[in-house]
């Protein structure tokens, strides 16, 4: 699938999703809920360090789009860290949605501009598509990992991939290993490669899948899958496609009444499709980039269908009671990141901040294994001897946030990944 332009733009579901969440679980309407975002759009915000690090790479793409050039560059260049960016056109759009509700976004002038922008860039979106937009309440899928129940979003999200990885890792005594050592990372990488292979063969809109998500982490199936992991050697027979990347934000929230919220939001690629509406200032996502063009594949692009989706907010439960809201950003890395931080806590006793801070490794389709720079030379050598091709990377792998509620005391502990512009705050 094309990753930029009009073709990968699917119906934006965020407004419908936020409306459903607020009406079902909230106490305020859009007129009040959107006010902080409206104020921020008009008043502006300083550009954070991590965002400023990433932005220049995509300035040429934005310069080639009239809306991108107008709303997201300063004198044709990416803003520097600390520069104040304002989005008055987006502020006006949010004001209209606050006053008129979600229908203001999915019909009328805003919708017409979205469709026109996508159409001119070779996309397929229609006014009827936007008018039919709806959000669904879904039941999470769950799996136990050594006494902790991990709850993930079902397909078309890739949460099942995290559960497959965890159930594979449960077959090994990770707690006896060095958490930053080559053997632990080798097992995690091999489990992830198997799980991602299943993702790219099976995962799609649930109405199009060949099997139920639960079948992919069924105990008997996992036992057979685990037999393919050689504790001493990287498997050479896994044919895996390139992994998509994305740019995502995540929030974990807990309140004084016992609620936990795990919320993730993304326009997928950096600046999404690279298209920005000129009048309304909306950056259009490129979620359709995760469709397949392979005829007969469950994730093949079709009308009225949702693509395989990378973003996966998650929770964990102890004895049926929610004790943690967490998420790990980073596009394709997310399921591996979920398994990594859960294992850090369960197998190695790390607290939320330590579990997020711990160094990471991930593989890509050309056979390399990306290692964060904090991993030791001994770890690099150990992965090489197991058949991996480790490469140190300057950019961090993913980023995450987490809130843990102690099931005994109710005490809250927050963690925020230093790889991103974020923080843990209580008030």
Q: Number of helical segments? A: 16
Q: Choose one word for the global shape.
A: globular
Q: How is the largest sheet built, in terms of strand order?
A: 3-4-9-10-14-15
CATH architecture of the largest domain: Orthogonal Bundle
Q: Cα-atom Rg, whole angstroms?
A: 22 Å
How many separate domains make up the residues?
Answer: 2
Look at the structure and name the CATH superfamily of the largest domain: Gamma-glutamyltranspeptidase, large (L) subunit, C-terminal domain
Please indicate the percent range of residues in DSSP E strands (runs of 2 or more).
15-25%
**What structural class do helix, strand and pairing data support?**
alpha+beta
Mean pLDDT across all amino acids: 93
Largest sheet: 6 strands, antiparallel
Looking at the structure, the CATH topology of the largest domain is: Serum Albumin, Chain A, Domain 1
The count of DSSP E runs of length 2 or more, i.e. the number of strands, is 15
Identify the CATH class of the largest domain. Mainly Alpha
Q: Roughly what percent helix?
A: 25-40%
**What ranges have pLDDT less than 50 throughout 5 or more consecutive residues?**
none
Distance between the termini: 45 Å
Keywords:
427 residues, alpha+beta, 2 domains, 3-stranded mixed β-sheet, 16 helices, globular
Description:
It is built from 16 helices and 15 strands. It is globular and about 60 Å long. It has two domains: 14-137, no CATH class; 141-245 and 310-416, Gamma-glutamyltranspeptidase, large (L) subunit, C-terminal domain (Serum Albumin, Chain A, Domain 1), CATH 1.10.246.130. The model has no long low-confidence stretch (mean pLDDT 93). It has helices at 14-25, 30-33, 35-43, 49-54, 59-63, 66-72, 88-100, 103-106, 109-120, 127-131, 159-169, 182-202, 219-226, 334-346, 352-357, 377-385; strands at 45-46, 84-85, 141-145, 148-152, 248-254, 260-266, 275-276, 283-284, 314-318, 321-329, 361-363, 368-372, 389-393, 399-405, 412-416. The strands form five sheets. The chain has a six-stranded antiparallel β-sheet. Strands 11-12-13 form a three-stranded mixed β-sheet, covered by helices on one side. Helix 3 packs antiparallel against helix 7 (88-100), helix 11 (159-169) packs across helix 13 (219-226) and helix 12 (182-202) packs across helix 16 (377-385). It is of the alpha+beta class.
